[in-house]
Design brief:
This protein is mostly beta strands. The chain has two helices and 24 strands. It has a domain of 103 residues. The strands form two sheets. It has a 22-stranded antiparallel beta barrel. The protein has a two-stranded antiparallel sheet with strand order 8-9. A hairpin with a 2-residue loop joins β4 and β5. The protein starts with a helix and ends with a strand.
């Protein structure tokens, strides 16, 4: 991380003076005060956090160079944080330079950035090269150090942890996008994961979309993930979705979990969404879950989103699951009311009832209230507080107060 930050800082120092008059910098600051119960220590904790997101554009005459950054710093007031020298922690989510048309039809992204291929995804300190219009195809090449975060702590891993990949895509078939990819991950210089994958999306007449994804793990010689779906609108206000999903858990070859026996999971889903009017929308879904070895479950969900008056939005949903592992029933209800054009209040209740086969039964409730207020074009305030009631706590209060500033 230090090496990446240093290189990008040097790049900033070199580029910005050349475009000082034209450069446009935008940033969003989110300053938070949080109070909560630490689930590991069981102690109440208070924390200050600062999130900062920035972007710099117009760095050259063609406006093809952009710099993006996003990070977080936290300061814990807990006693055990001071004792372990973890009062002040930082995390850099991304910080990269995006250079479109470095040469014709070639784009470059360099620095810490998120990469996503049909064969896998990662946060890397490295580079991505996108080559467009190689005849009917496009090509992506990427690689760098694999960035790993450990819970709420700083990042872990070293220079021997890497992620690299390549993807080839085409839109040669009308209204169809196809991308195939290869990805390779190393852990301490040892090959931890090697995967190939493909995604296909096609749009047919009469508002029909068909899509699919597949991943194959080369090390375990297993189809680790498979998804096939169709989405269509037989009526103007009705959307239907059908999906089949299959997953066979695979682990890094360097992980102790790679020797454990696992079961294949399959899910068949149907979902319907219907707009009664612009202000009232219904949805419902059913999923059949198969956990292998004759174990299965059924999951149902239904809900409504309503806007009975212009300034009030309400959402309510009910879900139920029965079968393998026990039974679950849950209700979600929340609403938001705009008091003025600058002020809004919101509240909600979550209720879940668990009836487990092997563990203790419990009823879990969450009550929360919140509010937002925009002082002007650039500064706003958000507050939220909640109480959790479960088998472990009769009351567990937590909340956050946030000041957002845009400049």
């Amino acid at each position: 991380m230090r090496r990446t930050c240093l290189l990008l800082s040097l790049a900033l120092l070199l580029v910005l003076p050349l475009a000082a008059e034209a450069a446009d910098m935008r940033a969003t600051s989110s300053t938070q005060f949080l109070w909560f119960n630490d689930s590991l220590s069981g102690q109440d904790d208070e924390m200050f956090a600062e999130y900062l997101k920035m972007s710099i554009t117009k760095l050259n005459q063609e406006n093809t160079i952009t710099i993006h950054g996003y990070g977080r710093g936290t300061y814990s007031l807990a006693d055990d944080a001071a004792e372990s020298d973890e009062e002040l922690l930082g995390r850099l989510y991304y910080f990269y330079l995006d250079y479109r048309d470095v040469v014709q039809n070639v784009d470059l992204v360099a620095g810490r950035h998120f990469v996503n291929l049909p064969a896998g995804s990662a946060l890397i300190d490295g580079a991505t090269v996108n080559i467009r219009n190689i005849g009917p195809i496009g090509l992506r090449l990427l690689g760098g150090r694999n960035v790993i975060f450990s819970g709420d702590r700083n990042e872990i891993g070293g220079s021997d942890d890497s992620f690299m990949g390549a993807g080839i895509s085409t839109d040669v078939i009308k209204l169809t996008h196809i991308e195939a990819a290869y990805a390779r991950k190393t852990d301490d210089s040892e090959v931890a994961r090697e995967t190939v994958g493909i995604t296909i999306t096609t749009y047919l007449p009469k508002r029909i979309a068909v899509y699919g994804e597949a991943k194959y793990d080369l090390l375990s010689e297993t189809t680790s993930e498979l998804l096939a779906g169709i989405k269509f609108s037989p009526l103007e206000r009705l959307t239907l979705t059908g999906e089949y999903y299959q997953s066979y858990p695979t682990f890094d070859a360097t992980s102790i979990y790679s020797v454990f026996a696992v079961n294949q999971y399959q899910e068949s889903l149907i979902k319907a969404e219907y707009a009664l009017t612009e202000d009232y929308k219904l949805f419902m879904s059913y999923a059949a879950e198969d956990f292998d070895d004759g174990e299965d479950a059924n999951r149902y969900e239904a809900g409504i989103a309503a806007r009975p008056i212009a300034d009030l939005a309400l959402n309510v949903s009910y879900d139920r699951r029965n079968g393998y592992g026990g039974e679950l029933s849950g209700i979600r209800f929340n609403g938001r009311y705009s008091v003025t054009s600058k002020t809004a209040v919101s509240a909600g209740i979550d209720w879940d009832d668990f009836r487990r086969e092997t563990f203790e039964d419990e009823t879990v409730k969450k009550y929360w209230v919140g509010g937002t207020h925009r002082f002007n074009e650039t500064i706003s305030l958000m507050v939220r507080a909640e109480d959790n009631v479960n088998v472990k706590y009769d009351q567990q209060y937590q909340g956050v107060a946030t000041v957002n500033a845009e400049f």
